[in-house]
């Protein structure tokens, strides 16, 4: 392999390591509270056993988060599409959510972002897939709050 190609490959590897380690440093898990903190976006994510098994319609998902009293906080909400997409990474297949999360069911999770009056956006935690479903359908729920 020519020297310039070796240097290019090495440089690309350094960039890759830097980018992935930077993302990993943005997130950490609080085992006691069962939450994941995103320090870049100042978000706190619910990551207890119910984040893996709560299956609700869109309106019920929104109400569930708004009424959630968890980890000594009561200001939870259903994440918007961009917030939900911020915790996925396709390279983590077969579960595309970041590895810092412990309680994950690899299926569709609601976002609060609406597509139309009858449909809302979801994220699939297997492939980094983003789709919209009818709001009456049931899908999984992971709540978030501002961590200030």
Could you please describe the fold and organization of this structure?
The protein has 148 residues and is α+β, with helices and mostly antiparallel strands. The chain has helices spanning 3-26, 50-53, 58-66, 81-85; strands at residues 27-30, 35-38, 43-46, 55-56, 108-114, 119-124, 129-134, 139-140, 144-146. The protein has a single domain, classed as Mannose-Binding Protein A, Chain A (Roll), CATH 3.10.100. Residues 4-23 have low confidence and may be disordered. 28% of the residues lie in helices and 26% in strands. The chain contains four helices and nine strands, in the order αβββαβααβββββ. The strands form three sheets. Strands 1-2-3-9 form a four-stranded antiparallel beta sheet.
């Amino acid at each position: 392999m020519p020297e310039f190609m070796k240097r290019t490959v090495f440089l690309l590897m350094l960039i890759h390591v830097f980018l992935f380690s930077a993302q990993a440093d943005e997130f950490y898990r609080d085992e006691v509270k069962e939450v994941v903190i995103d320090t870049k976006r100042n978000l706190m994510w619910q990551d207890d056993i119910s984040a893996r098994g709560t299956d609700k319609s869109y309106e019920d998902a929104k109400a569930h988060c708004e009424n959630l009293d968890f980890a000594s906080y009561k200001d939870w909400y259903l994440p918007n599409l961009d917030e939900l997409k911020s915790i996925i990474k396709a390279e983590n297949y077969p579960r595309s959510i970041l590895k810092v999360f412990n309680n994950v069911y690899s299926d569709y999770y609601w976002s609060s972002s609406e597509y139309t009056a009858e449909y809302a956006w979801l994220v699939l935690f297997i492939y980094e897939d983003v789709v919209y479903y009818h709001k009456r359908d049931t899908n999984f729920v992971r709540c978030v709050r501002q961590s200030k």
